[in-house]
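This section describes the prediction task in plain terms. A model, or a person checking by hand, is given the sequence of a single protein chain and must write out its three-dimensional structure as a string of tokens. No templates, partner chains or ligands are provided. The sample shown here is typical of the held-out split.
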Amino acid sequence: MNTFRKIGIPLLVLLLAGLSACRKPEPDTVPEDETPATGMPFTAFHTQYSSEDVTLGTDTVFLYRTQKTDYSQAVIHFETAEEGTVVTCDSTELVSGESVLDLSYPRTVITRIPDRSQPVITYIQATCRAKIPMLEITVGNTHQLNNSKDEQATTVTINPNGAVAGWALQTHKGTIRARGNSTYGSMPKKSYKIKFDESVGMLGARAHRDWVLLANYADKTQMRTRLAFEMGRALQLPYTPGDRFVEVYINGSYNGLYQLTDQVEVDGGGRVEARYLLEINERHTDIRTSRCQYSIEIEHPSDFSSDEKEEIEKFLTLAEASLYSADYQDMERGFRKYWDTDTAIKWAMVNELFKNSDAKSYASIFLYQKVRDGKLYWGPLWDFDLGAGNYGYSNQGNCKQNQTEGWYIFENKYFKRMYADNVWKARVKAVWAANREALWEIIQSIPDLQAELALPARYNRQKWPVIKDGAEYSNINLPDTDEGQVKFLKQWLENRWRWLDSQW
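The expected answer:
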């Protein structure tokens, strides 16, 4: 899958003292008999500080500096499109080049334009922070969006926020809906799927219609899936999703930090190119395999025929039989005839490093077949929020999945049998030896990623404040601070890497 332009890290993130959340304040100076509208009346806006990045959004002025700045005494300079426009804040008229505002917290200004009866509300947010893109999503019904998987029309403004060179503000129409299983059913912060009316190259990525916004609510570090994708790219595992962190606003209200990523789909152009895309998924059964009894969902084609289903079922029966045949190790007649070994090793290696709870046999285990009767390939990688010591469905997190020692993914019926083949085992060790340092370096990049996300993560925590919510899905025994969660993740992955290094 296409890889987004990587955000520059390491990047020192400096926090302004007293800076409040990015949540937009309600206006308090519009008379009750007037109906306001949000908008952007300014054609230019800045303060007295040099090297200040300014972005004029659809209804928000974003001011950014990457060095510590006292925005509590900001002299504002602005221009409007129409002469005679009056701008006020807290009922006080603002004069360009003279008025001083305290921008250490988000402010609301009211603009009255000549010959227009409706005042315009505009927000101002000034921060010293790492710059990440923003998506401003407009929908007609936010209750439906968060309580139904039905699609509804949306307009999405993609604001690169200075983080993507050569990319300007864009607005596109399409549909949006909630997505996911556990995230949708039991977590307050929802993930979303966006389908644009036409292909959109999101923030430097290849153009596609379908995109996913991962909430990562169960993963309080927000990092696990990003790190896994980085490892997939380091191993050159085909179709590893591209991703980028973004801040999301829905109908003008801040909704949190999200991971914008590719949709797992057969779409070409950098996404999966295949005849069939399958998922081992115990939540949905189109086929139950004959020997290993795995539940298979046919992801593509979604409108498969009975003949296509029969073709897939027969091939899976042969593929499983090849693993348990007397000559399964034979290089031509054995399991290699049906299973691609390179993607199997790389996919299993990343999931084993995380002890990814779902990826042993439950869900998000993707397989694809390129041509009729061709081999089964493994991937793309997906869904790591409950990996790396964060599994909570058993014994309050004190379970096998959360221990840094011992096998997990390689106890999957397919991988356990493959690993019994000494030639395949030697190949696993060779892939590890060639990539162990690169995987270790990704783990060591966690502090840089933490710095990059420091303020966005802080805003996200203010929107979604519960870090130990007692729900069964994630490990409740982890530290109760953002810093503690990140420290735990890094130490867990380091210890897990060391154990695997002792085996391979």
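For orientation: Confidence is low (pLDDT under 50) at residues 5-28.
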